[in-house]
Amino acid sequence: MILTFLFSLVMWFFPPQPVDVPVEGTANITVHVTNIKKMKGNIQLGIYEECCFLKAGGEFADFKKKVDGESVTVVFENVPYGEYALGAYHDLDEDVKLDTNFLGMPQEPYGFTRKLVSRFRAPKYKEMAFQVDQPEVELTIALEFWR
Ligand SMILES: [Ca+2]
After folding, report:
1. Cα–Cα 20 to 30 A to 19, which of 6, 87, 93, 112?
2. Under a CB-based contact definition with an 8 Å cutoff, are residues 143 and 38 in contact?
């Protein structure tokens, strides 16, 4: 009786905390690519894990969408919960690569889900990474032109 009472008292003051287990699931990631200036070519999007950020062919998933307006929307479906980074560029000449000049600076519009820390180097994964931990994630990438 006393034990039960003590137990109740303990539960009252120290209720059991929910265990912090990683949530499992998959998400649909909707990406709006905005600030498209030229009505030609394709928008190329890649979603990356840390190992393979911006490496050619290293996309966890990628998308190509024909430009038909000032913005395009794509949906990456059934992406497992986790951390990712996303990059996009406007492939004006449809050669499926981001054209660069002799200094390696992009010559086609490009963008990420966050602002660049520096325009004079490629962004690092951690600067662009975001968490996917709910069924619907919506992101916007405003393309910019390096000059
Ligand atoms: Ca290109």
Report:
1. 6
2. no
Structure tokens at 133: 């931990």
Strand, coil or helix: 98: coil
92 C-alpha vs ligand 1 centroid, how far in Å? Answer: 6
Written as tens digits, the pLDDT of the chain (147 aa) is: 666 766 676 666 666 666 666 678 999 999 999 999 999 999 999 999 999 999 988 999 999 999 999 999 999 999 999 999 999 999 999 999 999 999 889 999 999 988 888 888 889 999 999 999 999 999 999 999 987
Q: Could you tell me the distance, in angstroms and rounded to a whole number, from the CA of residue 79 to the centre of ligand 1?
A: 27
Ligand 1 centroid to residue 122 C-alpha, Å: 17
Q: Residue 75 Cα, ligand 1 centroid: separation in angstroms? A: 22
Domain 24-142 has CATH 2.60.40.10: yes
Domain ranges of the chain: 24-142
